[in-house]
Amino acid sequence: MSDSDPSRLVESNTRVKYDLNADPRLRPSSTSPAAQATFLRRLGRIRSSQPAVSRPGRISRASSIASNIAIPVVLVYSIFFVDWGPHEHVFSGPQRWLKRRKDAFWSVPSEEHRPTSESS
User: Checking phi first, is residue 11 left (phi over 0); if not, alpha (psi -120 to 50) or beta?
Assistant: First the structure.
């Protein structure tokens, strides 16, 4: 492949050479050399107007953080705390488990479960 072969490489205004056969998305619909040159010139203009590394903006970053926090919170809330009615449902088991854990945490241990203070 030589640099002078117009079917393989076309030089744009930005002095970047694009390989037309490398990526099918880079091929123009027309195969005429003039159409290819116009396509690659416009492609170079679009690429040169965009930063090399695109960083997300503050709103995008905040939205991403908010959704990464909100989704697990909503899931935990809907599984353990939402009252889905008096009938048996798919979340009854996890809700009963949480109720037993909360009751065990907030209850005062009975005499038989208290540790003895006998020293040997």
Answer: beta
